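Quick start: what a row looks like.
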Amino acid sequence: MAEANALQARLVDTNVLIVASAADAGSPFGAESTPIEEAALRQQVFDWLEAFVADPTRHAVLDVDWHVCGEYRHKLTEQDYGWLAMMHKMDRGEVVWVDVLLNKDGNAVLPPELAEAVTDLADRKMVAAALAALDAGHATQITNAADTDWIDCQQALHAVGLKVENLLPDWLQARWRQKHPPVRRAK
């Protein structure tokens, strides 16, 4: 248990890997592949991922049946920096491996209060894996760069002890406000 407290576990959302890959000159992933137009913001995400990979006390959270990696592989190639970063964590044994239970439709099973809040079915596997790592005693967070869905469910996640680390909070809030304009009341 002492080792679990010494390391930090991160469930890295696929969007972080995509944005970091787009910032990497050696990756075939293009900048136009992300909603983040500013190169400096993409570089900020790249810098976070690079620091994450370099720090042996920061572990990736992955599931033993590769549902999370399947999501990564669906969006990334073997040459993309984001995929290579996660493979590096695996190669060095810096992974918290967890089990994720799927329902008959192939979606991760979540407690009812979270199933209602996490409406993106692809995100459910991420949440289930992060919860399993948290339940195993690891200080776990979900790391996000560009997905506003995490703002929508962050209160429910926080209620069960799971924090979402938004790498670009100002950009993300502005994007969320664009998708959720204030309701104007008729006079």
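That is the whole record. The first strand starts at residue 8 and ends at 12. The chain has a mean pLDDT of 92.
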